[in-house]
Specification:
Blueprint lengths: L2 E7 L7 H14 L3 E7 L1 H4 L6 H18 L6 E5 L4 H12 L4 H5 L2 H8 L6 H16 L4 E3 L5 H17 L8 E3 L29 H9 L11 H7 L5 H10 L4 H28 L1 H30 L3
Parallel strand pairs: 1-2, 2-3, 4-5
Bound molecules: adenosine-5'-diphosphate and tryptophan.
Adenosine-5'-diphosphate binds next to α1.
Amino acid sequence: MKKVLLSGIKPTGDMHLGNYFGAIKQFIDMQDSYESYIFIADLHALTTVRDREELRKNIFTIAATYMACGLDPKKVTLFQQSAIGGELCELTWMFNCLTTVPYLERAVAYKDAIANGKEATVGLFDYPILMASDILMQNPDVVPVGSDQKQHIEYARDTAEKFNRIWSEQFKMPEPLILESTGIVPGIDGRKMSKSYGNTIPLFASDAEIEKAVMSIVTDSSGDIPTNVYAIHKLFKSEAELAPLYETNKGKYKASKDALANDIKAFVAPMRARYIELCANPSLVEDVLSAGAKVVKVRAEQKMVAVRKSVGLL
Ligand code: ADP
Ligand code: TRP
């Protein structure tokens, strides 16, 4: 029996190198050894995306990105979160009845969003509990994510523990899986690469766009090696491979950036070609999502029967 893996990404825009190295690559590396459930967190996206067409486009983009990067639908169940929206919301309600307001007020992502002027909706506040439901619904052993999601997994663990203690043992303790080397992929300004900072290198950009993004990586003139360039380059080549290159290019930042741009372009080219092909044949993606929906619907329905019995609804 393989161990179970679950993870998801919010469809809030185009994917970047941080998403690939921090999240998607791990899903691909683990798809042979785990029974994997990978989803598009479209219900979570409703906390920020308010435009119908944009959401439709983003959902497709994430699904096509998963497949273009190498997730194999024969090995992995790929699905849209809202395919089991009813069950997830029911479980979220049960968890909400166990969760205190002060405990949720400690969520770093929520505090950051409010500090950045976002509207304090109930959905934004309850985000971690919907995420706990995503996770616990599938009883995964591991949840691979970037380090920014660590606290959310702790929320899921705490919620599982409390439910199991108060009612009956329904949920397994999920373990976060965070790779040290790619837990935080830096962006072109050296801060964490993130859509919200506008410092990304998009995964499926054109060659010209990749070159432009790489040329705008912030460098300072204090050392021989441009730290921000090197930090991103390390994702593509080993330190041993990079050593002679950076030795030769000491102080010549433009040459190092050219080398990085070439490495990124070579790396993304085959994935980008598959992505373009999937965009031209959307039914290839839609069929995979429909098949995935059927699989998770059955699992969620079964799980909810046990959970309803546990709390006394059945
Ligand atoms: P963004 O910060 O650009 O909005 P998301 O929050 O949508 O990205 O992240 C989707 C997934 O990619 C999550 O698992 C997250 O942890 C991972 N991720 C995003 N940015 C990075 C990064 N710079 N380094 C490592 N992982 C990242
Ligand atoms: N919160 C995650 C993010 O912003 C997306 C997500 C929703 C998720 N539910 C999840 C990730 C369950 C892992 C497991 O990227």
